[in-house]
Amino acid sequence: MSKEKAEELKNQGNTSMKAGKTEEAITLYSEAIDLDPDNHVLYSNRSAAYANLKKYQEALEDAEKTIQLKPDWPKGYSRKGAALTYLKKFADAEETYHEGLKLDPNNDQLKKGLEDSQNKKMDDLNPFQAKDAFERLKNNSKTAPFMSDASFITGLEDIATNHQSLSKYLSDQRYITALGVLLGVDLQTAAPQSNGDPMVQKEQTRPSTSKPKPEPEPEKPKPDTEEDQKKKEVRFIKRLIIAVFHVTA
After folding, report:
1. d(CA 137, CA 229)
2. 126: closest CA among 162, 92, 90, 89?
3. What's the CA gap between 28 and 115, in Å, rounded?
4. pLDDT in tens, 157-176
5. Cβ neighbours of residue 161 closer than 8 Å, sequence gap 6 or more
6. Between 86 and which of 56, 198, 200, 230 could a Cys-Cys bridge form, CB atoms 3.0 to 4.6 Å apart?
7. pTM higher than 0.70
């Protein structure tokens, strides 16, 4: 009888959630749990409700209880991964999603959750998202002149919203300069300045398919023109940005 009542309370809680009455839903789920404390679905539903109210620690506790009661149920790992993500425990969240995917490798909810968690991690590291980012750019002599350009500001806001957007602006040197200011690194001086840089040499040197011809004296490589050096600097900076922010140039 108690389990039947618990099922009824669960259904009422689901109805309340759909109606946006999250607090009411939590109360109903809690009453159902009192009647049927071993029902993993009740903890899962209450975890989702807590997360909806941004009570992520409570959401995590219910998700962990869900997994404890039903360790072979992928949704429990999805609940836990989501709670950990919002608590900014990204490494734990990623591990949780992978645990769930071991149970169900094709679970779309888990795969989407993992992708979202990884994106939130990168956004959290996004220097353009810092509260004082725009103020720092306004007060820096290198970037202050850019801040009067409305289109430049729009680009900064785009990058702040989504770090992947940075790839759209890599051809504009102003955004690279702004990134350097926010990171506290001069990306121009970080770029290779000579032919001795191994990253540059990798681009310059290509294996020859023909047999080498003997020459009395091999020709010395011509020094790079200013345009050549600039191209190498841009390629170097793009590789650096891709490595740090996982964007596609």
Report:
1. 27
2. 162
3. 32
4. 998 888 778 888 888 999 98
5. none
6. 56
7. no
